[in-house]
Amino acid sequence: MIPLITQEVVYTHGWVTMQELAQLIAISQMTPGPIAVSAATYIGYKTAGILGATLATVAVISPAFIIVMLLAKFYHILKSYSLTQRVLDGIKPVVVFLIAAAGLKLAQTEAAKFSAWLIAGGALMLMTKTKIHPISIIIFGGVLGILLY
Fold first, then answer.
1. How far apart are CA 139 and CA 119, in angstroms?
2. Averaged over 106-129, what is the pLDDT?
3. Full DSSP string of the chain
4. CA 16 to CA 23: how far, in whole Å?
5. More confident residue, 117 or 69
6. Domain-wise residue ranges, the chain
7. pLDDT band at 79; cut points 50, 70, 90
């Protein structure tokens, strides 16, 4: 979702800047629910107040809700086809690349700051070398942000 959100809200419509989107993503990672819902609610509110937030949130949730309900209804049929598995196997690397590309675009907003590299390196080390919960690592990043910025 991040590449799609970035394209639409930053480049196509200009509703938020890349910096605002980076902050929105950071906040969304600390709150429950999908990032698309958090982004829609925030951007809807920013552009059209409470009504905008409500409509944007409903608009983001509705297609996914309908698709998931249809897939749930027909999954028992679809899972028996090898074509379904092959399609999913083809989609997986594309999704990984899209996430990586979005991460690189967001990293560009922070790339010039040494302190950002320090925080990112600390988070990467904690994620790969320990069994610390991701929420604790996010809190760690926040504390380092307070200290370094």
1. 11
2. 83
3. -HHHHIIIIIIIS-SS-HHHHHHHHHHHHHSSS-HHHHHHHHHHHHHHHHHHHHHHHHHHHHHHHHHHHHHHHHHHHHTT-HHHHHHHHHHHHHHHHHHHHHHHHHHHHHTT-HHHHHHHHHHHHHHHH----HHHHHHHHHHHHHHH-
4. 10
5. 69
6. 2-79
7. confident
- Rounded to whole angstroms, the Cα distance separating 53 from 55 reads 6
| Residue 13 pLDDT greater than 90, yes or no | yes
Phi-psi region at 31: left, alpha or beta (left = phi > 0; alpha = psi -120 to 50): beta
Short-list 26, 55, 52, 56, CA closest to 40: 56
How is residue 64 written in tokens? 């996914």
pLDDT score of 57: 94
**Residue written as tokens 């590309």?**
101
